[in-house]
Amino acid sequence: MQYSLEYPFFLLLLILVPCFFVCMKKPITIYFSKPIWFNSSAKVLSINQILLTVIYILMIVSLASPISYSSILPNDKSGRDIIFCIDSSGSMVESGFDKDNIILSKYDVVIEIIDKFIDTRLSDNLGISIFGTFGFLASPITYDISTLKDLLSNTNANIAGQNTAIGEGIMVSIEGFKVSEANNKVIILLSDGYHNSGSISPYDAVELAKKDNIKIYTIGIGANDGYDQDLLQTISSQTNAKSFSAVDSKGLDKVFNELDKLEPSLIRSSIYLEKNMYYPYLLVLSLLLISFYLNRNRYV
């Protein structure tokens, strides 16, 4: 459960709170020979100040509309949809891609960087496809980023076999857009090898992507001679996208920073799930205090 304010700018009115104490009109000093005949009102005034201050604060916070919610979903489906098409072939098990943590496999590093990239794409709809000897759609386009990240963390290298079926990876990614209503559809394909498996040619898959106006950004992972640079560049150029290479984790970080600029996340309106509003409780409490204040000062 998370908490927030729908209209936080109303809290600026709280800067007037000190006026309940420093802006009060100074009392007139009158001298009497028998002051004992009069009741002192100093304490009453002090309590009244506190009451008025508390009432004012409650009403301002009510205007700010405090809420609690379980999650936020985008309300506009015409933004950008992205599917990460990830190579999980046997070569992705190799370590040393991250120079600061050489124990991690290439696949683990890729997943970590994609996970971090997902955190910056709160306005996008995202999906995941995985390919090795065959390709499969791990997650269709979804707004549920938390579940997507959990699913991504539970995948591993060799989950789809040890070969590299780039054509099938693209095809299952295209299938993931079937329910998409987005104006902009993007596939981010990462591979460290040569196409050597599957019944679908990468070129045939690219032709289908072009018909649906899907951009395919490609990223070659590892040494330049370890993957098919010409194929990846052709895939990107044919779909009006761009091809990148990353020899290590820092290079891959820079690639995703560039992708973030090339395909900026759109700002969209949001709706809340399980939204609870608390301003009515604050208003009721302030009304009760107002009644108490008026009753207290009826005969003063």
Task: Spell out the blueprint of helices and strands.
Layout: E1 2-5, H1 19-22, H2 42-64, E2 66-69, E3 71-74, E4 80-87, H3 106-118, E5 125-131, E6 135-142, H4 145-153, H5 166-175, E7 184-191, H6 202-211, E8 214-221, H7 229-238, E9 243-246, H8 249-262, E10 270-273, E11 276-277, H9 279-296
Helix pairs in contact: 2-9, 3-4, 3-8, 5-6
**Average pLDDT rating:** 86
Order of helices and strands: EHHEEEHEEHHEHEHEHEEH
CATH superfamily of the largest domain: von Willebrand factor, type A domain
Main CATH class of the largest domain: Alpha Beta
Number of beta strands: 11
Report the portion of residues in β strands.
15-25%
* Biggest sheet features: 6 strands, mixed
* Helix residue percentage: 25-40%
Offer a quick outline of the entry:
With 300 residues, the chain is of the alpha/beta class.
